[in-house]
Design brief:
Length: about 475
RNA sequence: GUGGAUGUAGCUCAGGGGUAGAGCAUCGGAUUGUGGCUCCGAGUGUCGCGGGUUCGAAUCCCGUCUUCCACCCCA
């Protein structure tokens, strides 16, 4: 009989249990912070109607969309009416438009789900991956103060992830467009093209951008190019510097002035929100690729790992759901690509395998004592301690080996000797220590051990809070 | 979609016209209440797929697929 080689399609991330636990810990941290800042959970279907998803046909998105089709429909040669979502923003727009009357505005939702993109796989880039989005959608209006609030959320998450220093870089599309307009680049399309090139500054360097802007398709005058480069090369190192950067821009047109005002308001909020100055900076080269951003744009990087690139990005959009409703729904949102983030952090050695979610293994020393083992396991579980029981008799050595390989930190051992003494043995496989405790104090003793390990950062809190 | 590379045991790879190897991993054992170290033993491959050259191909040639890297785009 021929067997099929078991393998996952390229561009998918499939993990072993201990790595999956580490990944889920990452998602949990993100989710916890989203909820802490008052965002509500939403899930939408993995696939949407094609007509809903592909509002803007042509271009990059359509090239990357996976269509979904039943075999029956495929045989009939019908065009697929379903497609897998490629981000969470388009489904959000549909969701808000569809449930507009049942939602409270400003609507704050978080969504942690997988999205699909049919692109060729590369390092840390997947065809199926998790996005963790938050968006705040207003009705008719939404204050830029919300734009500042998102900075606080990002800072809170990356602080808690403890992956070293990070920088949330801020910019504003109006400010950029206004600046280009002042230089005589008035056409919106042309501005978009310049935005896209300028965004590559930190990756490709000033010379690359200079050459591109002077080349065909742009052909900008040297003075304009130098003005642009001088503008986009600026970075703030502190709040005072950020304010000075805005102050030096001067005015000249409504867009530029609006951008300066908006960014200024965002800066004014950050201190009160408790975001340290070291966590954010203005960077006038940040543009983001998506063309629906109209105001604030965000891009977060890990200072000590520039190679990882952006770990969280997003921005403000004027009218989220114009394709689905006549209501004006402005919003602001950010997204964390969790699969890529996890993968990159692991590559950089910033994240390892976790310990098992199983906290204690109840070993089976003597099959005759099975009723005792069952009782022990029940006690542990009732106390909120995650416990696994060995059901098959076998050598104790093998059972401990199993616990070790499975990443289980503690083993409980009970044989004739302990039973006679009314005691039970607790073994810490990591510390290579064991101690005997009176049977009645097992739970207390284990809790102390577990809390200690959590305090040392060796374990994460599992099971119900005790 | 464009350009470049790759493909040999579960993994990392060596070999290079005469029919396949190492390390790691896996499993078993080292006197029946204690894991990660050590020692002993065991198994596995249509050498990516198809065709050609040859007495003979994993090894040379052609095609094809796959995976990877860069561009594009993005998380």
């Amino acid at each position: 009989m021929s067997v099929i080689k078991p393998r996952t399609p390229t561009g998918t991330l499939e993990l072993l249990p201990l790595d999956q636990i580490a990944f889920q810990d990452l998602l949990d941290t993100i989710r916890r912070n989203y909820e802490r800042y008052g965002f509500l959970p939403v899930e939408t279907p993995a696939f949407e109607l094609s007509e809903v998803l592909l509002t803007k046909s042509g271009g990059e998105t359509e090239r990357q969309v996976y269509f979904v089709q039943s075999t029956g429909s495929l045989k009939q040669g019908d065009a697929p009416e379903l497609a897998l979502r490629f981000d969470l923003t388009v489904p959000l727009a549909r969701y808000v438009a569809e449930h507009e009357h049942a939602l409270s505005f400003p609507f704050r939702r978080y969504q942690i789900q997988r999205v699909y993109r049919g692109e060729s796989a590369q390092r840390g880039r997947f065809r199926e991956f998790y996005q963790c989005d938050i968006d705040i959608v207003g009705k008719d209006e939404l204050s830029v103060r919300y734009d500042a609030e998102l900075v606080a959320v990002i800072a809170s998450i990356f602080d808690e992830l403890a992956v070293g220093p990070f920088l949330i870089q801020l910019n504003n599309r109006k400010l950029m467009r206004g600046f280009f307009e002042r230089l005589g680049i008035a056409d919106a399309e042309q501005q978009t093209l310049v935005l896209r090139e300028v965004d590559k500054l930190d990756k490709r360097g000033a010379d690359y951008v200079r050459r591109t802007l002077a080349g065909e398709g742009f052909g900008l005058a040297e003075a304009a190019i130098e003005a642009i480069l001088g503008f986009v090369s600026k970075r703030s190192g502190s709040l005072a510097e950020a304010r000075a950067m805005l102050g030096e821009l001067g005015g000249g047109n409504a867009q530029l002035e609006a951008g300066i005002t908006e960014l200024g308001e965002v800066l004014d909020m950050l201190e009160g929100l408790g975001v340290p100055e070291s966590r954010y900076a203005l960077n006038f080269s940040i543009a983001r690729g998506l063309d629906y951003y109209t105001g604030t744009v965000y891009e977060t990087t890990l200072t000590e790992h520039p190679g990882i690139g952006s770990v969280c990005s997003g921005g403000r959009y004027d009218n989220l759901a114009s394709h689905y409703t006549r209501s004006k729904l402005p919003g602001v949102g950010i997204s964390i690509g969790a699969s890529r983030l996890y993968w990159q952090l692991r590559e950089a050695g910033l994240i390892g395998s976790a310990e098992s979610t199983v906290q204690v293994l109840v070993t089976q020393m003597d099959p005759k004592l099975m009723p005792e083992y069952l009782k022990l396991a029940r006690e542990l579980r009732t106390a909120g301690i995650n416990a696994e029981m060995v059901m098959d008799a076998g050598k104790l050595g093998k059972q401990l080996k199993y616990a070790d390989k499975a990443g289980i930190r503690f083993a409980v051992i009970l044989g004739e000797d302990e039973l006679a003494r009314g005691a039970v043995m607790v073994k810490d496989l990591r510390k290579q220590e064991q101690f005997e405790t009176p049977r009645g104090e097992l739970i207390k003793a284990l809790r102390v051990e577990i809390e200690q390990a959590i305090a040392l950062g060796e374990l994460r809190r599992r099971g119900k809070a005790s």
